[in-house]
Amino acid sequence: MKLVIASDIHGSAHWCQQLMQAIEREAPDNVLLLGDLLYHGPRNPLPEGHDAARTAQMLNSIASKVIAVRGNCEAEVDQMVLDFPCMADYVELFDDQQRIFATHGHIFGPDNVPALPAGSALLYGHFHEQRDQVVDGIRFVNPGSVALPKDGKHGYAVYNSGMFELCTFEG
Predict the structure, then answer these.
(1) CA 120, CA 98: separation in Å to the nearest integer?
(2) Residues near 28 by Cβ (< 8 Å), separated by ≥ 6?
């Protein structure tokens, strides 16, 4: 199973276009979106190229590949314009390699870990910084923020047959 994992697009059509190009290059089985897709929220600045309608259009063009969870900036109006479900607090995926618990990070995350067996992975966004670390047998992976990174890396992650890789659009 190959996944492109992204979070915190915040309605930036500019950075969503970069993500779409990465998805085309990577040719994943599915695209896992960890929330905060269309709205920037009251605490964030407007991201470069903010255009929520265009961002929704781009994401809808790959709706059959998208698995998404709700971020803290999602609202019912977002679900009305997206062609894939985006209001679940988490989703669990299983492959031959491991169990993957995917969430936005504002409910579950490194500070509130659900009951997971050792060898599982918890994927989360929300903090806008790329991370990949193992704590008590659980791998914690944050793909960073597509549009508003706090660590300066506009990024995403790739999961392929049990391996995670943090990627940036800058190379």
Answers:
(1) 6
(2) 2, 3, 4, 65, 158
Per the structure, the complete domain to which residue 163 belongs is given by 2-168
pTM (predicted TM-score): 0.97
From CA 108, how far away is CA 105, in angstroms rounded? 5
Give the burial string for 111-144 (b: 16+ CB within 10 Å, else e): eeeeebeeebbbbbbbbbbbeeeeeeebbbbbbb
For 52-100, write each residue's pLDDT tens digit.
999 999 999 999 999 999 999 999 999 999 999 999 999 999 998 799 9
Question: Cα(89)–Cα(72) distance, rounded to whole angstroms?
Answer: 10
CATH code of the domain covering residue 127:
3.60.21.10
> For the chain, what is the domain count?
1
Q: Which of 14, 23, 27, 43 is nearest to 128 (CA)?
A: 43
